[in-house]
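pasting for the record
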Amino acid sequence: MKAVPELVWIVDPATGDLVVEGLEAEEALVLAGDLLPPPVDLNCARPLATVPLPETRATHGPVLRVRSLYHASVVEGPGRRSVLQTQGCTLACPQCFTPETHPMGGGVALPVEVLVDCLLDPIGEPRDGLTVLGGEPFLQPTGLAALLHLLKARGVHTVVYTGFTLEALARRQDPAVHAALSLIELRIDGPFVAALAEGAGEWRGSRNQRLIPHPPRSGVRLGVPQALVCQTSLVTRVVDSTTAAPISRARLEPVPLPRLTRRS
């Protein structure tokens, strides 16, 4: 079995499901095949099941073009989350897990208000927050900002994945981009880089991607998921894969960030 630096064990008390980050399905069989049911591969933006999108078509107000919607994710941000996958991406990262989300004209355009109702459906409870990923959400900044505004008003914790860096987004002149950035509690930025995928850690596809809380929290070091997690509905343990000892990431250094200004 290939050695990995750490294993993340996540138990969802609502379903009894166990998710192990840091192992392939074949490796999980070697480790615990005599104790657990056969494992199934799970990945960010590749859920085991999605819910049907509503048939409502946009008639007025802000919209988002989306690919899918699903609940009970434990791998796309802290806790147990509902997830919206947007449609359209021009970055086309090599070996992207979801090339079907790249065409700009794919998916379905839906009113933001309808999407909020679907994302907060009681079927997704318990829910610790909501995650938006792509595609590339920041190619639809007006709809994204409107969605985040409605979620903020309802007190929902939000995570947004983007293939752009925060620095690149900060340089854009579109007010909707800056409005969206100001409403996100946790940004996960940077393109997927296949060569850096191994050992990426919780919630990230590759090691170059950063976890950026907003507003910045005193004492929080980027790349340290434990320090970003509030009380959630999950049971999570991070251990060294060879010793089973708990891992502390407090020694990691913070990453300098640009100052964001609100553009009118």
